[in-house]
Design a protein that fits this description.
- About 15% of the residues lie in helices and about 30% in strands.
- The strands form three sheets. Strands 2, 4, 5, 8, 9, 10, 11, 12 and 13 form a nine-stranded mixed β-sheet that branches. Strands 1-3-7-6 form a four-stranded antiparallel β-sheet. The chain has a two-stranded antiparallel sheet with strand order 14-15.
- A hairpin with a 5-residue loop joins strand 12 and strand 13.
- The longest helix has 12 residues.
């Protein structure tokens, strides 16, 4: 094979540069995200979703976007890192009418730009789904911060999911605030003694409340 002439070298080098994928300074390789297979999500209880992100992106958030399948825009919760690119989280508890939850995992930079997304998953909600949460996982489930993706979700319930465990919301503008809707429901429930039945125990006409809500 004859060597390339000096006149052809610049053109050959340019072709190699164009054909070769390159990451420019300041750019980040798009992560590959794989969501673990989940057989079911419990009715009126928290499920557990795990995913793998490779490569991990420094300074970015890993979010689980979820919704009642085919019902309105998505919400999201952050996922916790457990090392080696593994992440987990617990979505809110589905209501009785919610029979399927649709979700996907995304890596999002500090400006809110998605750097990579998994394939969407639809998982059935069943009454006999048995998910055992660890102490740490249960702690997250009882202190959920739910993010919104549209202005219409402001000051409204998380559609298709119970208030139980939701303490804060992040608006589509990125502002963190208390979940006034769920807090209002808890206060209204606590202010009505009849709403405590049958959780209360009636003894001689006196209502004895076994426990008070943790967040009045």
């Amino acid at each position: 094979m004859k060597p390339l002439s000096s006149a052809l070298l610049p053109a050959a080098m340019l072709a190699l540069v164009v054909a070769s994928p390159a990451v420019l300074p300041g750019q980040t390789l798009a992560p590959t995200i794989t969501v673990d297979e989940t057989d079911c999500i419990p009715n009126n209880d928290n499920g557990l979703i795990r995913a793998t992100v490779q490569p991990e992106v420094g300074g970015a958030e890993v979010r689980l976007y979820f919704r009642w399948d085919d019902h309105g825009p998505f919400y999201y919760v952050l996922m916790d890192a457990e090392g080696a690119g593994r992440y987990w989280t617990t979505p809110p508890k589905p209501i009785d009418e919610n029979h399927q939850v649709e979700y996907y995992v995304a890596v999002v930079d500090p400006q809110g730009t998605s750097l990579g997304e998994s394939e969407p998953v639809v998982t059935p909600v069943t009454g006999d789904c048995d998910v055992e949460l660890s102490r740490e996982e249960r702690g997250m489930a009882e202190n959920l911060v739910v993010g919104e993706t549209t202005d219409e979700q402001l000051d409204d319930m998380v559609y298709g999911f119970l208030c139980d465990g939701i303490i804060s919301r992040i608006g589509s503008d990125g502002v963190l605030r208390a979940d006034s809707i769920c807090r209002r429901c808890i206060v209204a429930w606590w202010d009505k003694p009849e709403a405590l039945l049958p959780a209360a125990v009636l003894l001689g006409g006196t209502t004895v409340v076994e426990a008070s809500p943790s967040r009045p």
